[in-house]
Write a structure and sequence with these properties.
The chain starts with 6 loop residues before the first helix and ends with a strand. The protein has 109 residues and is of the alpha+beta class. The mean pLDDT is 90. It contains three helices and four strands. Helix content is 36%, strand content 29%. It has a single domain, classed as RraB-like (Alpha-Beta Plaits), CATH 3.30.70.970.
Length: 109
């Protein structure tokens, strides 16, 4: 399998090398960061109503104090689709003073 030479491509290559089937639906976590809790809460409320990403979790990083919203999307982890989803979520986050911090997935046993 060939992956583009960028951050998403490198991460997909590592995940594939670890034995994850990238042709199956996976739950992909997208990480959006906020300096202020009210901004994070507004984003979480906005994204929960979106059909793409109804599952969110709000956490505060104990080391940095930054608020993190984890948005879980069920999808086939295709490079183009991942990049488009990242851009979409970041476009919403930007309206709430947030910014993207990448994505990841946990393989099911």
């Amino acid at each position: 399998m060939h992956f583009p030479d960028d951050e998403n491509g490198q991460l997909l290559a590592e995940i594939a090398a670890a034995g994850v089937d990238l042709n199956c639906l996976q739950e992909v976590d997208f990480y959006i960061l906020f300096e202020q809790k009210p901004d994070a809460e507004k984003f979480a409320t906005a994204i929960k109503s979106d059909e793409l990403a109804p599952s969110t979790e709000l956490n505060k990083c104990p080391d940095t104090g930054v608020w993190e919203v984890i948005t879980r999307v069920k999808m086939v982890p295709d490079h183009t689709l991942l990049s488009q989803t990242e851009q979409y979520l970041e476009s919403i986050a930007n309206g709430h003073n947030g910014y993207g911090d990448g994505w990841g997935l946990m393989a099911e046993d």
